[in-house]
Amino acid sequence: MQSANMLLRKIVRSSVLPFATQHGMKKDLFPLSRTLSLSLCLKQDKSCEASEKLDLDEWKKVMKSGLQEEVSETASEPKELSSLAAARETLEMWRLAGKAVPEEISEEQLKTFMECPSKSAKKKYLKYLHLKELYKKNDKRKAEEKRERKLEAQDQASKTDETKKSPFVCLWSSTMDKAYNWRAAQSMIFGQPLVFDMSYEKEMSVREVTNTVKQLVLSESCNRRSVDPFHIHFCNFKDDSLYEREFIKHYREAWGKLLITVTDQCYTEIFPKDKLIYLTADSPKVMKTFDHDKIYIVGSMVDKSIKTGVSLARAKRLGLETAALPLEKYLLWSTGAKNLTLDQMMHILLTLKDTADWKKALEFVPKRKYCGFVNKPVKELKKTLDLINTLKLGKGREKAEKQFAKNYPKKYKLK
C-alpha cells in the first residue's frame, strides 16, 4: 500500500502540479487551494497508517466539480453577449418585416431596447430611433446641398469677376456710364423737372425710410438710363437727416457727384404753383394725359399701414392741383391698394413721357393686382361679370339670361 501511495504521489507531482502552475494564474482551471491541500495530504503519508486508503472516487468528484464551476463562470461572461446578439437578430427580423427600425444602433440603445417592458414599448422606442436617424440624414443632406450651392455661387462670382476684369467689358461700361451721365447733365439744363417730396420722414419708421431710399435709388438709376431723363429734384431735404444717412450708405463717395438737385427748399418756392401737380392715389381727379409743361410731384413715402389722405392733405394745404393715375379706367383691378412704389411710378412716368401710351406705361403695375387690361368701361364689365357669376351659381337664371340678352343681343351667347 505504501508503494501504491508513492506511485500516486509521483504521478500527481509529474502531471497535475506543473499543469496547475501553468494555467492556474490565467484561467484558474484547477484551483491552487485544492492542489495545495492535495499536496499536503500527500506529504502527510508518512504519518498515516498503513490501513488508511486514498479515496480516488472522492478525488475525481472534487476535480469534476472544479471543472464544472470554471465552465459555469466562463459561460456567464458571454451570456450578456448572447442576449445582445439575440436582440440584434430580432431587430433584423423586424427590419425585414418592414417595420420602422434604425439602420445603425449602439450597444447602449440596444440595452435600452432590451429593458423595455413590453413589445409595444420596444416598437415605439425603435420608431423614435428611426425618426431620429431620418432627421439626422435630412439635416446632413441639407448641409451638403447648402455647401454645394455656396460653391456654385462662388464659382459664378469668380466667373463674373473674370468677365468684369476683361478689357472690352470695362471699356464698354465706362463708355456707357459717360453717355448716361451726359444725358443726366443735359436733363439738368433742358429736361422736364420731376420733384420728390422728402418731407415725410416723421410719418415713417426707420425701416420704412430705408425702403423709401432703396426705391429712390432704383428710380434714379432707371431715370439715368432712359433716353430722355427727368431732372430730379429732392425738395424739403434736411441735412443730417435719416434720408441723407441712408443715401450715403448706398452711394458712399458718389452721393455728392449725382446729377440731381438736392435742396431743403419747398417746391412751391422754386416753381410756380400753377405748374405743379401732386400725384397721389387719394386724389378725386384722374390724370388723363401726360403734360410735358407741368411739373409732377411724387411723395417720397413708403407706408406699410397705408396711411390714406396724408399726401392729399399736404397738397391741399399748399393749394396745389392733384391727380391720380387712371388705374380703374385701364385695368380690371383685382386686389390690394392702388398705391405703387416709387420706382414703379418712375417707370410709368418715363414711358408716358416717351410714348404717351397708357397701356405700355401701366404694364409696370404688379400683375398680382389686376386681372388684365380693359377696352370697355369698367362698369359694364363689372355688370357682365356679376351676371356670369349669377348664372354659374344658378340663382335667378331666367332673369339673368333676359338681362344679359337685353344688354348683349347679338355679340355674346351664353353656354
UniProtKB/TrEMBL annotation:
EC number(s) on file: 2.1.1.218, 2.1.1.221
Keyword Membrane among UniProt keywords: no
Domain SAM-dependent MTase TRM10-type residue range list: 180-372
GO function term, MF aspect, one: tRNA (adenine(9)-N1)-methyltransferase activity
Catalysed reaction, written as an equation: adenosine(9) in tRNA + S-adenosyl-L-methionine = N(1)-methyladenosine(9) in tRNA + S-adenosyl-L-homocysteine + H(+); an adenosine in mRNA + S-adenosyl-L-methionine = an N(1)-methyladenosine in mRNA + S-adenosyl-L-homocysteine + H(+); guanosine(9) in tRNA + S-adenosyl-L-methionine = N(1)-methylguanosine(9) in tRNA + S-adenosyl-L-homocysteine + H(+)
Enzyme class label: transferase
Organism: Tychaedon coryphoeus
GO cellular component: mitochondrion; nucleoplasm
Segments of this protein annotated with the region Disordered: 140-159
Main location: mitochondrion
Coiled-coil spans in chain: none
Listed name of the protein: tRNA methyltransferase 10 homolog C
Protein's cellular compartments: Mitochondrion
Keywords assigned: Coiled coil, Methyltransferase, Mitochondrion, S-adenosyl-L-methionine, Transferase, Transit peptide, tRNA processing
GO process terms (BP): methylation; mitochondrial tRNA 5'-end processing; positive regulation of mitochondrial translation
